[in-house]
Amino acid sequence: MSNKQLITTIGIGLAAASAGMLTRKTLQKSWEKVTNKPAPKDKPSENTDIKEAVTWAVVSGIGAGAARMAVRYILDKRQSK
């Protein structure tokens, strides 16, 4: 693998990870506005209902995963031109 390919691969990975983190932060803020409660944290809490925790896990997982996938797809497509 050449240096240019390595740098491109690292750049695409960083862009995808950044998109996932940004999406998760945006979803947290949206969750707080809709539910008037903070988004559930990773650790178990007595204040968090299991239904709420599972819903948050699904929403944040799908959102962040879709954002990472979209960025990788777009950047890979641009790179192949």
TrEMBL record:
Highest taxon, organism lineage: Bacteria
A matching Pfam family: DUF4235
Transmembrane portions of the chain: 53-75
Name the UniProt record assigns to this protein: DUF4235 domain-containing protein
Keywords: Membrane, Transmembrane, Transmembrane helix
Organism: Pseudoalteromonas marina
InterPro entries registered for this protein in UniProt: DUF4235 (IPR025329)
